[in-house]
Each structure stands twice: as structure tokens, then as C-alpha cells.
Amino acid sequence: MMRLDHLPNQRPDEHVVLFLRRQWFALLAIVFAFILLTAVPLLIGWYFWPTLEGLLAQNVFGPLLVILGSIYFLSIWLFAFLEFTDFYLDTWIITNERIINIEQEGLFNRTASELDLAAVQDTTAEIRGILQTVFTYGQVYVQTAGEKGRFHFKNIDNPERVKEIVTKLVEEDKRRVSALGAGGKGKVKSVIK
Amino acid sequence: MFDLPNISVPVGAFLIVYGAYMMFYVLYSLFNVYHLLRYGVYGFGLYLLVTIFTGGTIILVAGSTFLLMGYDWAHPISLDNTVEYYNEDLFPAL
Question: What residues form the membrane-spanning segments (chain B) (predicted)?
Fold first, then answer.
């Protein structure tokens, strides 16, 4: 279990500034699919109840229908939970020294990467379309100087505010790193404060 | 036309399929819960999530068990009965 007050490879004086997940709007697709897949067979069963009741009373079709129904609803429940886990474990942690990107792809693929703030060259916030504008969510791209490419914060809440915070943290970190090069550690601390 | 031996299988055979599915379900769920507890961020929400999932599973399995308990699992599914549905018009050449 990960603790925000005890990050992996946590550095001295490092603290979490932002902890991000995709916005709640991303969950709506899962909730909508879950409700639809649950409600449709229930409504069909309710509409054809006299026929269904007769089938359920039979010695062979009855247990077969109950077993198939049970498998169906358990599968939907499991599917919804798997999708939610995928959403829940996709996180971005921004500290005063680095960005940690943790992405869960399905149940068996997981990518965790980190980036020093001093290596960040450019940050872009992007809000596209009516839904993203109304619900103020969108993308933030963090571009590095090296070949590592860029970090993509997907469908996060308030991307422009996040971009501002990241930009500010990058500036502070660059000042801190350059001060570290110029002087000693004690001097760096005073710069941060 | 031709006689099939009188083979019958108890309805309980369906439970083998159900049992196999439940094994898959339990394995997958445990793996998923392990993932959440291993990589999730420590907090009340994490435990709430696992509790909701487990609770939902218990309700679904308990409901299914309650419905399934009323059936006679020894009731035979006879192969002879399936031939009753055979329609000679479908395959007149036979």
C-alpha cells in the first residue's frame, strides 16, 4: 500500500503538493454501462414475467436460467470493479521535487515512472469540447528536455490550475538546483524557504 | 429410425459449470483486491471500496444460492426427451 507521507524513494525535504486522478466524469461511463447492463435484463424479465415464471418453475430450465443469470450479474459486478480499479490506480503525484506517474492498464500491466521537475521544459494544459469546458477537466502535458517524451495527465480536474502549479514548482526546483550547483546544501535550503 | 441408449444426466451437472465460473470469479477478484491493496493509496476509501465489492459479491452469491436451493438437483435430463423434439420434416432424406 502506498502512503502519500512515505513515497517510494522519498528524498529529504520532499513533500506531496498535488495528488491527481482522472476527474469523476471519467467514472460516469463505467456507472452508465453498469446501470444499463443491469437494468435491461431486469426490465425484460419484469416485462415477460409470466413466461419467465413458468420457465423458472421447470426442473431443467429453472436452475439453468438461475445459474446463467447469476453468472451474468456476477460478471457485470466484476467488470465494473475491474474498470473502477483501473480508474482508481491511475494516479499522478506531484511533489516539490518530481512528478510520479502511475498508470494501470488492465489488470496485468502497470507502469510507474518519475521525472525530476528540473528536467521539465514545457507544460501544456488542454481543454477541448463542450463537456470538458462545462465540467472543467482536460489534459496536461509535461514535456521534458530529453528523449523520454512527455507525461500526460489524462482527464484531470482543473488542468489550468495544475499547469500553473507545475510551472511554479519547476521554476522553484530549477532555482534550487542551480543554487545547489553554486553553493552548498545549507544554502539551498535557505533558497527554498 | 434409430435408437439412442437411454442416457440421463442429473440437473446437478450444471453446478459443475457454475463451480468452475465461481473459481474464476474468486481468483480474479482476489487478484484485483490484491492489486488495490498493494498499489492503492492508503486511506479509508480503499477499505470502503474492498468492502463494497465484497458485500456486493456476497449479496449476489447469497441470492443465487437462495434461488438454487429450491430445485431438485437429482432430476435427470434424459437424452430420450431431447429426441422428442426431432422433426422428420427437417431432414426428409434421413
Answer: 12-34, 46-71
The minimum CA-CA distance between A56 and chain B, rounded to whole Å, is 10
Residue of B nearest to A84 (CA): B49
The answer, for B16 touching chain A at a CB cutoff of 8 Å, is no
Where in chain A are the domains?
17-193
Asked if B29 and A78 touch (Cβ cutoff 8 Å), the reply is: yes
Strands (E), A74-160: 91-95, 98-105, 109-116, 120-126, 137-144, 150-157
Q: Where are the domains of chain B?
A: 8-83
CATH code matching the domain that covers A17-193, chosen among 3.60.10.10, 2.30.29.30, 3.30.70.3340, 2.60.40.2340: 2.30.29.30
Task: List per-residue pLDDT tens for chain A, 193 residues long.
Answer: 777 777 777 888 888 999 999 988 888 889 999 999 999 999 999 999 999 999 999 988 899 999 999 999 999 999 999 999 888 888 999 998 899 988 888 778 888 888 888 888 889 999 999 989 999 999 999 988 766 667 889 999 999 999 999 999 999 888 887 887 765 443 333 333 3
On chain B, the residues whose CB falls within 8 A of the CB of A84 are 49
Q: Which residues of A touch B58 (CB under 8 A)?
A: none
What number is the ipTM of this complex?
0.80
Q: Which chain B residues have a beta carbon less than 8 Å from that of A2?
A: 39-42
Amino acid letter, A165 = I
Across chain B, the runs of DSSP E, i.e. the strands, are 8-10, 76-78
